[in-house]
Structure formats: C-alpha cells, structure tokens
Queue: 2 jobs
Job 1
Amino acid sequence: MMQLPAIFEIYKPYIEKEIKSLLSNTELLKISKNKIALYEMMAYHMGWADENGTKVISNSGKYLRATLALLSCESICGDFKKALPAAAAIELIHNFSLVHDDIQDGDEIRRHRPTVWKIWGKPQAINVGSAMKTLANLSVLNLQRNNIPPNKLIEILKILDESCLRMLEGQFLDIDFEIRPDVDIADYLKMIERKTAALIECALQIGAVTVINYSKIKPFKNFGKYLGLAFQIRDDILGIWGNDKKTGKPSGNDLRKKKKTFPIVYVLSNADRISRQNFLKIYSKEIIYDEDIEKILDILGNLNIREISEKKTEEFYNLALAEIKKLPVNTEKIMYFEEISNFLINRDF
C-alpha cells in the first residue's frame, strides 16, 4: 500500500485534537441514558472508538481536506495553527457527507468497518451527519481565538456554505444519474466538479483566506478544482478495479450499484454500438450479480477503459500542477503541493 506524504502525519494529531475538542465539549455525553451518545457515534465514524464507545486505534481516514487547508495557510504565513478551526470545519463537512452518502447508497462498509447507519439505523445516522455539519459552522467561530477578524469569519463561512451547497448539488446529480440513460462525459464532469472538487477547492481557499485577501485566493480554487477532478476519477478507477483490502469497500461495489462513474459514462458515450448494447444488456438489469460483474469487467477490458480513465486522471493532474506554479506561497512549500497531487493520482486506497 502507498504511504501518505509526510505532511499528512505532521498535521494529523493537531486536526484530531481540534475535532475531538468539539465532540467532547457537550452536555449530551453527560446526560444521555443510552450506552452510546450522539458524539460517540461521531467518534466511531471518525475511527476513534468502537461501537461500544471504547477508544481504539483505527483507520481514521486521510484528512485530505483538512491537510490542504493547513498547508495553504502555512505556505503563506508559516503558521498552520491559525487555520486549525477552519480545517476541522472542512473535515467535519466531509464526514457529514460520508455518513449521509452511506445511507443514500446503502453502503454497509466504510474504512473496513460497518457504517454508522448499519449499526445504529438510518434515523440516528442522519442525526450524526447533520450534527457534524452544525459543529463545522461552530468550529469556524473558534477562529476568533486566533485573532481572525469578523470580516474574515464571514468570508470563511460564505466559502464553506457555498461549497457545501455545491457538494450537495453534486450528490443530487450523482443519484439522479443512476436512473438516467443519457449521461455523457460533460454531465459527469459537472457532477464531480460539485460532489468532490467543491470541498477540495473549499479547503484550499479557507486555509488561504485566513491570512491573505479574498481577492488573491483564486489560484487555490483553480488548483483545488483540477486536483478534485483527478482525485474523483482515480476514485472511480479504484471503485471498479481496486483491492477491497486496501480501499475498505467491497470490490466492484460501484458496479453493483450501477453508478455512473467515469469508466461507465465513457462506455455509454464512446463505445461502438455492439459493445454499448452488450454493456447495457447487463447494466440495465435490476440486480447485478457476481457473474455480471465479470462480464462487465471483460467489456471494460476489451475497450481499454481503465487505461483511458487513467489518462484522463493524468490530464487533470497536469492541469493541477500548472496551477501550483501560480500559488502565492513560499517556494519551499511548493514540493508539498506536488507530493500530495502525485499521491492522489497514484494512490491505491
């Protein structure tokens, strides 16, 4: 398995401490008569506790978005801690979306463990995700302790909420595409620009705007856009051809759910008539069985779809690298942006 760039490990304990302080600073943990309180369910999702509330060392995710927020801040002013509350906010937004996404998709496994809804049911999982979204907004207000002025707080909250709305637009489209036969590559790119790229753009922007003028953050937004597009297409590749022991999700899960990921949309938009008909004959079935997945993989293999998908990922990666050169950051920090970009398009988890 590929190793995360070192910068992730440097920031990780600070990110976790910041988020844990939000989850533990509540009366509900003290008054709940249930064995597991709302915030302990959040801790479970984050990988910090088991389903009984006992602290564990587990797979807590990459903290990609929080890391990008801190890096964009530190690369300008040299002090990543100024942006910690904002980084915690973006990570909570991301995880709120994952909890709700698991409900919507019916996914039972995330990060090698049962999902929140699978253990506690969909109603409580909705509460968990919604509460994480609210905590994210409250976290932004903690920037005041770092002497971030009110006008900056308003800018950051605006970026955060607009990005969250765009992410939800993308999630709507992703679900809508499942029942639409006419999705093309342009539609797909509009969807992932919202569903995935919006929060990555957001992370880079809010980290930067804590220390520089709002008018100067556009290069961070552009870099985040292309990085997010490359990230999602790589995710689509792993969703079909990835090793479930590394990804933490069942192999071929996207195919079983008939997701309109990049490889699938490419077949529907560009394959020859016979290949497309053969593919649709299988993909339009009410239930996709294991033997159907093998047939789909054969079709994708014959059309070189994995190679085409990887080439598209590389295209957006190169666009992201070009944007890095425009970032108003200290030159010695450029290597960290490049390392993260390289990791994201080559990762196996």
Note: The radius of gyration is 20 Å.
Job 2
Amino acid sequence: MNWNCKSTWKKAKQNTLWCLLGCSIGDFGTIFYFQNIEHTWSNFEVMGLAIINGLLTSIILETIILLKQMNFSSSLKTAFGMSFISMIGMEMAMNLTDLIFTGGAMLTWWVIPIMLIVGFFTPLPYNYWKLKKYNISCH
C-alpha cells in the first residue's frame, strides 16, 4: 500500500477531525459533569461512561452529517459501521492519556490539548488505510 498519498492523508485527517469532534463532545461533557457534582462513582466508572457517551455523540454527529448524502437508516449504518474501530481507538487513547496525566476523569486546561492530539493521531493511520484500501469515507 502507498502511504505517501497526500490527498488520502488530507481526507483521512478531515474524517478523523469530525470523529474527534463527536467523541470529544460526549467524553469531555461527561467528565466535566462529574467534576462538578457530588458523586460516588470511581474514576474508572466515570471514564467508562465518558467513553460510551463519546462513541454515541460521534455516531450521532456523523449520522447528521451523512443525512445530507443519504437517508437516515443508511446514514446511521454508515456512521456506525465505518468509524467504530476508529472511535474506540480514539476514545481509549484519550482516556488513557487522561489517566496517565491526571489519574483519570479530570479535565484541566493543560491535559485537554494533549488528549485531543493523542486522540487525533491514534486512529489516523487506520483511517488512512481504510480510505486507501476500500475508498470508504464517512464524510
């Protein structure tokens, strides 16, 4: 496989950014919520819910974007089927980064950019490969 195709890298980066936006909304929103309420959840429980919510918001965002190109059923199937491995990798990388730097389930001004950078670059080679091999893109 040719890993030097600039146009494929550009498209893979665009797709990954959309995925990152969707995942971050649910993930960061969940962690932020639990940072600001009294609760008895462990950091791992909060992070688990953050991962699930990140996956859900990413699927919702991608489905909405795809509605411009296809019907709802096809949009949902495409959003779920084509990016799910990428989303899981992204979510795991972001939350592992949070765990390493803050102990987990803690958003700070300095850890968010690190989480976003790690979350972007972790699935990028997979997204490039899938786009190059199958010419499959979510956006």
Note: The chain has one domain: 6-134.
